[in-house]
Amino acid sequence: MTLSKNKFDFEELLNRHHLKKTSPRLRVLSMMSSKSTATSQPDLESVMNDIDRVTLYRILSAFEEKGIIHKVFDLNGTANYAMCLSNCEENHHHDEHLHFNCSNCKNVYCLEELSMPAINVPAGFKIEALNLYATGICPKCSKKSPAK
């Protein structure tokens, strides 16, 4: 979802999802939408030290439940969060895209331009969520290190 970084857009997003417009929620949205990578709760805590851990956890949980953000895991198994596309709904995410974990800088990128391939499962199985992870070196780290 492409969000401009102004307060009105975030307030409208919270209205649309029936969430109160609180300063901590607006700040979390602003911070997350400004990042090109997924971010973890500890990373958010380090830059938003005036929002306590429990409040931040509740904000992230509410945003995930409402389809505003989605959870993706990094190479260490830590939950990271990224803004959802506009077609995510409450309790039903449409974040079936490649999640790229850089083994150098440890950032997690949502490569939304790459769709998931069609998966045909045997009779009786129903896919409710699908995740595709790739591990490698991101463009930023590729520029830093000499070619081998």
UniProtKB/TrEMBL annotation:
Record-linked InterPro entries: FUR (IPR002481), Fur_C (IPR043135), WH-like_DNA-bd_sf (IPR036388), WH_DNA-bd_sf (IPR036390)
Alphabetical UniProt keywords: DNA-binding, Iron, Metal-binding, Repressor, Transcription, Transcription regulation, Zinc
Sequence positions that bind Zn(2+): 102, 105, 138, 141
GO process annotations (BP): negative regulation of DNA-templated transcription; regulation of secondary metabolite biosynthetic process
Family designation: Belongs to the Fur family.
PANTHER family documented for this protein: HYDROGEN PEROXIDE SENSITIVE REPRESSOR, ZINC UPTAKE REGULATION PROTEIN
Protein name: Transcriptional repressor
Organism listed in the record: Mucilaginibacter gilvus
